Amino acid sequence: xxxxxxxxxxxxxxxxxxxxxxxxxxxxxxxxxxxxxxxxxxxxxxxxxxxxxxxxxxxxxxxxxxxxxxxxxxxxxxxxxxxxxxxxxxxxxxxxxxxxxxxxxxxxxxxxxxxxxxxxxxxxxxxxxxxxxxxxxxxxxxxxxxxxxxxxxxxxxxxxxxxxxxxxxxxxxxxxxxxxxxxxxxxxxxxxxxxxxxxxxxxxxxxxxxxxxxxxxxxxxxxxxxxxxxxxxxxxxxxxxxxxxxxxxxxxxxxxxxxxxxxxxxxxxxxxxxxxxxxxxxxxxxxxxxxxxxxxxxxxxxxxxxxxxxxxxxxxxxxxxxxxxxxxxxxxxxxxxxxxxxxxxxxxxxxxxxxxxxxxxxxxxxxxxxxxxxxxxxxxxxxxxxxxxxxxxxxxxxxxxxxxxxxxxxxxxxxxxxxxxxxxxxxxxxxxxxxxxxxxxxxxxxxxxxxxxxxxxxxxxxxxxxxxxxxxxxxxxxxxxxxxxxxxxxxxxxxxxxxxxxxxxxxxxxxxxx
Length: 514
Description:
Elements: E1 12-21, E2 24-34, E3 39-43, H1 50-57, E4 65-70, E5 73-75, H2 80-86, E6 88-91, H3 103-109, H4 117-131, H5 146-158, E7 164-168, H6 176-191, E8 195-199, H7 203-209, E9 212-217, E10 220-225, H8 232-240, E11 258-267, E12 277-285, E13 289-293, H9 300-308, E14 319-321, E15 324-325, H10 331-336, E16 339-342, H11 357-366, H12 378-391, H13 408-420, E17 426-430, H14 438-453, E18 457-462, H15 465-471, E19 474-479, E20 482-483, E21 487-488, H16 494-501
Parallel strand pairs: 3-8, 3-9, 6-7, 7-8, 13-18, 13-19, 16-17, 17-18
Antiparallel strand pairs: 1-2, 1-4, 4-5, 9-10, 11-12, 11-14, 14-15, 19-20, 19-21
């Protein structure tokens, strides 16, 4: 039975919370209250102050001013250990895992001493099945994709039976069926009295799940509302301070010419774990966006590595870019054929964290021989980086900062802009809008559609089905290393894609001819 909150103080209340970093006021006198059993959304664009606020609540950072009240009593939360002792559980968007430990070891190390590895393994299976989040207890974390790492964070938190559960983008790795299962479970948790603070850029799921939403902009609360009473577009406009338009497809035209052709690509799993690729065939033509859907861990990372040249095929003829065989060619050779690539992990893979934006631009563009001399000098790279920042609305703390100083959404806009500004014949991008706000997502998706409209082929690997249905002309689903036949986007439904993602369709037994 849901707890009676009519005469009780909120489970948690933040009053006048501020956090200053030098001249930057990340949180500016924020008030927020969450009742027992309430599902409350915290919304805002990248850089609005959401992460700072929840880190204060979870004891990761100390506020500059303000008070926290737990069940009406003032408390000081000096560490995550103290937060968990109160009953606060937090699932971060950015992971805090030890790469060399196994899944079970990562979970056990964060729990109390009575959580032995044996107990963790026993409970892990139950929780994983209940939430539709499959995990292998003895698999090393360094072998996992970003989506699988997020699953560990979710399960680790739920094992602690929190009274307040803070979730940051929890459905980014789930199929529609799994997401709905999670929502059902969260509804039950709330009905039993567990409060939930829900952070997501997927506004339709916020409207489905939450009854209250607090919106931040520029570190301040600009409003609290019932998200069911507003459309997703109206909420997005409040978040960013301006109207969010739809992605425009431009002038329709027939695709012409093969820019990417993959024939019968098979690769063994990279190491003891990971996913092998089996008989992958794919065609992306000039002027079209091809979407690849799938649940994390089913071969997306391996497929991206094979297309980009980070892993090489057994035969050159397996992959052709702009008509040239390149299955055994490295990434620089493929760039020189006119291809560009944006991997899933933006910080560390797509961009060197301690290198400045201009230096990251130089590293990427020099290999593609974009200048008349075959290389671009650093001063030219600085001008190009400035152009990317301006064209893609990248908000930076200084003129040419290190990549690590940008927020996730702004770094994502930069690395995608860095490749698009080359006007490549082929762009392959993995999870283009994962964890970015509505405004940034719209800008990125529009840039991808515009690039295809100019005659490039764009391949988008994404776990966001709304994104693929919005921008893709054709789509296939990857499951356990096999790719379904490529079909026009109008031939798919979300339910059909979800079944494919779960491996419950018969299409995987069909021929995968291009």
